[in-house]
Design brief:
alpha/beta, 11-stranded mixed β-sheet, single chain, 20 strands
Amino acid sequence: MQLSFLLSSKLRSDFRAATARRLAAPDAAALPASQLATVRKQWTDAVKDIPYYANLVTSGHAPKELHSWDDLHRLPILSRPLLQDQPESFIRHSGPPDSFMKTAGSTGTPLRLGLNQSERDRMRVVKLAEWQKFGYTPSSRLFLIWGHSHLLGTGLLGRLNHLKRKLADWTLGYRRVDAYRLSRTLCESHARALIRHRPLGLIGYASALDLFARNTTQFRDEFRALGLRFVLATSEPAPSEDSTALIEDLFGCPVVQEYGGAEFGQVAFKNGSAPFEVYSDLNYVECEFSTPDSSGTHPILVTTLYPRYLPLFRYRVGDAVQRPELMTHGHISRFEVLAGRINDVIQFDDGFAVHSVAIFHCIHQEPAVHNIQMIVDDSGIEIRLISTTPDDPALEKRIRGRLAQVHGPLGQARIHFAEDLVTNRAGKRLWFVDRRLKKPVRV
């Protein structure tokens, strides 16, 4: 059993902050005024210190101050390609950030953004507050079907990263297994490890959890006997219509979902069959268009309301929602369905399934690579890269080495340096194009 004295003073502080957040009662009536006051404050700071926002004002494309919601709605939409193409415009005059983060690039476009430690701390507190509702305490255990790009490495550094992660997980009461490779045999092994660990909750990428559940139905009685309080499906919508019902039946507890992004933080949380509840103190969320598209989905824009190294105003996150509940000032307070991108599992003919995020974690740390796409056809796998250093043997060798760590055959994938990526009929550049005439059956 995890011992509470192993938790650092910082973690104890996070638990106290999470408790305070959980017990704080939001004032819905005061929300429009409080959100606008926060937006005005964040905008004033951004215009003074961040070149991109200052240039919007001096060029006449944005007001110096925001006095109303109409003022906010007139700001130009901020997009991922813009952040990628002008990284120097988002570094503050007052100094560099505490650190940088780089997204895995579910759209095929990795992104590097500055972060301060306070932002990381806040997002951790938000997660803890939700887990506390299910009885999570400093001595609770969690089981994770997860992965991290910094664990893909060789030599001394690779071994050191693995050791640090294992020590941190042991301290926190986590048991972590690899979400990037899942076969029936591995799923059964992970199921036995989960039963031995006896966690309070199970956390994983939604598509990885779906695959894990379909391969471990024979453990249903043992899973339900564990008394899990929740299964947290994260990073993507469920891959199948029956995913949530399958997982809830298998474990006998609710499937909860969180919505957010590495670059824009936590946005909403869904408890079981309830709608997604937006963290309205942290984000102003709006529909990009007043009417939904033909499928009934609303693309959304996120404006961050808390102190950040890089505040985001009307950021096009690339996701859409269905059946949003809008307040009078245009803020989405809750929504029924997240209809965004799916970082799906790739099923191979040899029975292995590899999570898509693993592919990008093998590539996105290469600063010369600006866009990524994987194409699978009946002849094999092709990785397309848009790079400032095309036909670079050393870069290709590094990428192949990481791909082989995830799954051996990936190391033999064709790597093609391209000027552009394959698009669909809507003009979107998808991260994964499956051209196989006969696709493997997901079991």
